[in-house]
Write a structure and sequence with these properties.
Number of strands of chain B: 11
Strand content of chain A: over 45%
Strand content of chain B: over 45%
Structural class of chain B: mainly beta
Structural class of chain A: mainly beta
Largest interface: A-B, 31 and 28 residues
Distance between the termini of chain B: 41 Å
Radius of gyration of chain B: 14 Å
Mean pLDDT of chain B: 94
Order of helices and strands of chain A: EEEEEEEEEEEEE
Shape of chain A: globular
Shape of chain B: globular
Helix content of chain B: under 10%
Largest sheet of chain B: 6 strands, mixed
Number of helices of chain A: 0
Largest sheet of chain A: 7 strands, mixed
Oligomer: heterodimer
Distance between the termini of chain A: 36 Å
Low-confidence stretches of chain A: none
Order of helices and strands of chain B: EEEEEEEEEEE
Number of strands of chain A: 13
Low-confidence stretches of chain B: none
Number of helices of chain B: 0
């Protein structure tokens, strides 16, 4: 199993440009999430999904869109990049069994700089 | 709204000097509390899940404990390779499973 994969690893954008961060998992997990991590801070939830076709907003959703057409893929779209979106972005997947929540598996991250 | 506060922000230890990291949380019913380790430039890596007060989990030099208001990550006789940022996260019963609230982390440095 590859686990959770993210592409690209690094990206530099100019203000106003758009792009899509890719995330894929091969563990058949129903839950997938996008977080951003700023220096010295923990992870803040951007958007998450509880299954194919179902997404919802997290703590900091503005400026980002998501969709989930398959169980495996959960891309994050930046509509019009702003310097405030300079951050490290992590994708994660997880699952539940018998009403118990289990741990999240994280990808290696995408380091985004907006100039 | 679920909340997590971790302390201290940073901790410097000598090799072999045991200590504890604190995670205080507020949730309206706990679905699960999670500890992760994050090395520089990498994604968080899972350590423990705790579901109910009184529960304890151990792995090598690490032991996680849980009360109704906080969790501790005890580090016994740490080694330099234990240096990392340790993140605590909670899932409340009123939120969708898979949606975690994270603390800001404790950065641990162990000097040889």
């Amino acid at each position: 199993n590859a686990g959770v994969t993210q592409t690209p690893k690094f990206q530099v954008l100019k203000t106003g440009q758009s792009m899509t961060l890719q995330c894929a998992q091969d563990m058949n997990h129903e839950y997938m999430s996008w977080y951003r991590q700023d220096p010295g801070m923990g992870l803040r939830l951007i958007h998450y999904s509880v299954g194919a076709g179902i997404t919802d907003q997290g703590e900091v959703p503005n400026g980002y869109n998501v969709s989930r057409s398959t169980t495996e893929d959960f891309p994050l779209r930046l509509l019009s990049a702003a310097p405030s979106q300079t951050s490290v972005y992590f994708c994660a997947s997880s699952y539940t069994r018998h009403r118990l929540s289990y741990e999240q598996y994280f990808g290696p991250g995408t380091r985004l700089t907006v100039t | 709204e679920d909340q997590v506060t971790q302390s201290p922000e940073a901790l410097r230890l000598q090799e072999g000097e045991s200590s504890s990291l604190n995670c205080s949380y507020t949730v309206s019913g706990l679905r699960g509390l999670f500890w992760y380790r994050q090395d520089p430039g990498k994604g968080p890596e899972f350590l423990f899940t705790l579901y109910s007060a009184g529960e304890e989990k151990e792995k090598e030099r690490l032991k996680a404990t849980l009360t109704k208001k906080e969790s501790f990550l005890h580090i016994t006789a740490p080694k330099p390779e234990d240096s990392a940022t340790y993140l605590c996260a909670v899932q409340g019963l009123n939120t969708n499973a898979g949606k975690s609230t994270f603390g800001d982390g404790t950065t641990l440095t162990v000097k040889p």
